[in-house]
Write a structure and sequence with these properties.
The complex is a heterodimer of chains A (138) and B (316). With 138 residues, chain A is of the alpha+beta class. Chain A contains 2 helices and 8 strands; from the N terminus they run E-E-E-E-H-E-E-E-H-E. In chain A, helix 1 runs antiparallel to helix 2. Chain B is an alpha/beta fold and 316 residues long. Classes of the chains: A alpha+beta (138), B alpha/beta (316).
Chain lengths: 138, 316
């Protein structure tokens, strides 16, 4: 009996002037990896594995398929000049609108929630700032 | 790791005041002047984080009435919540710190829009003007258009915006003719008479507007439409400023043209010239000249840094 094929999707965040971008590769079994990168796409660290629950993964892939089918869109939005990023999901040749801009419907809102949960699990709930270590003026 | 405030990166408030020639006037001017910052979503720790910055920098505390936080309607309640998928808290932290650094006696109005739609932030900018802000910093940008020009045209108030952080790309609201469009520089200590050296950052927005016609007061050739950048200040994160955000681990070195846009907004509060004219026109009236440190090649207008960086408050 052939093994069931795993679906996969990619979440790409552009990064900003002050934060690294990242690429998250997530598989339908909940396994994933995250790679921090410069704005030109070059990696700044080796991919780091992480896992999300099976239910989170299932919901994400279901919502991605629905978003694709529903042709979701997002309103134009302003970006913080120094910290604003764009975040998009790539799945089976489809690319989502920028998920940091307000989605126009519930399908988009669901995808934003999923991506937020996956980001948290991958350790980038907060922007990965470039200029660590932290300093304390004196 | 501790960094001394002695003209080394990341820059402290005293470094920025020295670099832009306002060390003395910052101590005595700006009392009561209201500088507004417009951003999206909430930042519940704004006041406590700002207190840490001001105390560490040796600035007077932001006492009662010094910091007012309102929503895009200009009301103190309800304030929006932070948005984890589009977090503007660090932007607001940086902006609050920069206004404090340049104009420690100013009052600060933080306007938090409900979201980051262009219309939400435009409402926030209008609320800031309605509440009496002398200057309004808009440290954000989007793909250029001309839909929102009216929301950012407020003669008698200095409306600043960031040129954006995409090299050679124009943005809204910066290119609007009622806005002082602020570009970015790299700032380094030097042994020159000024004590500082600046050059164009190289990663800031700039160029000829695709939508906004050339204002009569823009007398420089090169663009048939509006030259986007009017003036500049430090923005290069490699020569960045110290700013504090408790939720982001505390002290950080930050940059971007939002740094520059808020510095210039605070300078307009110190200079008190915003009420005299259309603020961007005021910049062009004084450039080239002693009001600005020339940045870039040649001696005139520079596409990325405009007429240069602040040399005191005459040009503001």
């Amino acid at each position: 009996m052939a093994a069931a094929s795993r679906d996969s999707a990619t979440i790409v965040d552009s990064g900003s002037t002050n934060s690294y971008g990242y690429t998250i590769q997530l598989w339908s079994d909940g396994k994933g990896s995250i790679t921090l990168q410069e704005r030109d796409g070059s990696a700044v660290a080796t991919p780091k594995p992480f896992t999300v629950s099976a239910s989170t993964a299932a919901r994400f892939f279901s919502d991605v398929a629905a978003a694709h089918k529903g042709n979701i869109s997002a309103a134009p939005c302003m970006k913080s000049a120094s910290f604003g990023t764009s975040t998009r999901v790539k799945w089976q040749g489809w690319v989502s609108p920028d998920l940091t801009c307000p989605p126009n419907d519930s399908l988009g809102e669901a995808l934003v929630r999923d991506v937020d949960a996956i980001r948290q699990a991958a350790g980038v709930g907060a922007p990965p700032l470039r200029n660590a270590p932290r300093i304390e003026p004196s | 790791m501790r960094v001394a405030c002695n003209r080394a990166v990341p820059y402290c408030a005293s470094d920025l005041e020295a670099a832009y020639g306002v060390t003395q006037i910052a101590k005595t001017s700006g009392k009561g002047a209201l500088v507004a910052i417009v951003g999206a979503y909430g930042y519940p720790n704004a006041a406590s984080d700002l207190a840490v910055y001001r105390k560490t920098m040796g600035l007077p505390p932001c006492a009662t009435g010094c910091l007012q936080v309102v929503n895009q309607s200009g009301r103190s309640r309800p304030l929006p919540k932070p948005n984890s998928s589009d977090d503007w808290r660090l932007e607001q932290a940086l902006d609050l710190d920069m206004v404090s650094a340049i104009c420690p006696n100013c009052r600060i109005l933080l306007v938090q829009s409900n979201g980051d739609k262009n219309s939400d932030l435009a409402l926030g900018a209008n609320a800031a003007v309605a509440l009496g802000a002398v200057s309004v910093a808009n440290p954000y940008s989007s793909k250029e258009d001309d839909f929102g020009q009216g929301a950012y045209r407020h003669p008698g108030h200095a409306i600043t915006a960031s040129a954006g952080n995409e090299a050679g790309v124009t943005a809204s609201p910066c290119s609007y003719s009622g806005v002082v469009c602020v570009g970015g520089t790299s700032l380094l200590a030097a042994s020159s008479k000024r004590g500082w050296n600046e050059r164009p950052w190289g990663s800031g927005g700039s160029g000829c507007s695709a939508y906004v016609s050339k204002p009569a007061w823009q007398r420089v050739k090169g663009c048939a439409t509006r030259n986007e950048v009017d003036v500049a200040a430090v923005a290069d994160p490699a020569t960045g400023v110290a700013a504090y955000g408790s939720f982001a681990g505390g002290w950080q070195q930050m940059g971007g043209t939002s740094t520059a846009a808020t510095i210039v907004a605070a300078l307009f509060a110190l200079g008190s010239n915003a009420a005299r004219a259309n603020a961007p026109q005021w910049i062009w009236r004084h450039g080239p000249g002693a009001a600005y440190h020339h940045v870039g090649s040649g001696s005139g207008y520079d596409r990325e840094s405009g007429w240069g960086t602040p040399a005191g408050v005459t040009g503001f």
